[in-house]
Design a protein that fits this description.
Elements (H helix, E strand, L loop, with lengths): L5 H10 L12 H13 L3 H10 L2 H16 L3 H4 L20 E4 L2 E15 L4 E13 L1 E11 L3 E9 L18 H37 L1 H15 L3 H10 L7 H14 L2 H15 L3 H8 L4 H9 L4 H24 L11 H5 L5 H6 L7 H21 L5
Antiparallel strand pairs: 1-2, 2-3, 4-5
Helix pairs in contact: 3-16, 4-16, 6-7, 6-9, 6-10, 6-13, 11-12, 13-16
Amino acid sequence: MNAPSNGARGTAAALGHYVNPAPFDPLEGEQLSSDLERYYLASQWRMMWWKLKRHRVAVASGVFLLLMYLSILVSELLAPYNLHTRHTDFIYAPPQGIHLFHEGRLVGPFVYGLSYNLNMDTLKREYALDSTKVQAIRFFCRGDAYEYLSMIPGNLHLFCPAEGGTLFVAGTDRLGRDMLSRLIYGARVSLTVGLIGITVSFLLGISLGGLAGYYGGWVDNLIQRTIEVLRSFPELPLWMALSAALPVSWSPLYIYFGITLILGLLDWTGLARAVRSKLLALREEDFCTAAMLMGARPRRIIFRHLVPSFMSHLIASATLSIPAMILGETALSFLGLGLRPPITSWGVLLTEAQNINVVALYPWLMLPVTPVILAVLAFNFLGDGLRDAADPYK
């Protein structure tokens, strides 16, 4: 072999030999390989969770909804007053602001007392804050008696008014009932309507959509024509008509389940079509054919092999359907065709705000709109995050 020329030796000497001074990590390549293996071997649910965690708005919405649903388990503890407690001396009382300092001195959470006089010209109660009455808020205290879940008696509350004082953070209604307590109790009904309704809707949508997509033929035609007939009716008028058909003699509990069933029975059509389109594509896959050749029954193939293949999409659809049911219950109750007292929901509370003159004088009666808007927005943000996370490879 010929020796390198003098010019080549000079260039090599000029460039020198580079040595990386960083310490050598013998596990660096193995760590990279382990991360790739962990990614490619991860299940669909794990990959969905990884992608959902990067959607911060969806995660925050999910935490908010989780706290709301946990609160309905302890509504009696969170509410400062009993649901039906009336304060006849404080009808249409305005909200009392919470303060920490009084005359430059830290007192802690407290409210100023209310004083009022009756305006003989307008026959309106005019309330004013009395700065001489400093009413400290008590925590983990004994207050109005209640029956937890209508079974266990108790009187422990998270926070209570001062002895002989008042605590109307959200004001009172025309009967002197605390609006904040009624909002907390109303969440139990309004939020569970969506869960029970979506359960009914899912059972119908997955079952009928699965039959239509798997069998096809006359079964598919029959189910699709039924869906087209139901979707041809305007949604809200159909809800109103069916709600008005409920017997007046029914108890509030029966009315509650009746409204829930109506919302669920009318919401399954869109889900059924989505399930049908997915099954039409998946039933030709090799794993479905293999299950058929092994003698699996159609019910097992649909619910054991086909439905889990797009369960993540179903969950995303559920989070977008629940707020529609909450809005449906609120609209029906607001119009007087849904839930009725003594059942308390956000829609029932909004019936107090039907008169525009009342709203102009007592705007805090519109406060039940706030939790409805927050719940609907949270469900929509969570649904968007789940819909993006449902396709981890995207």
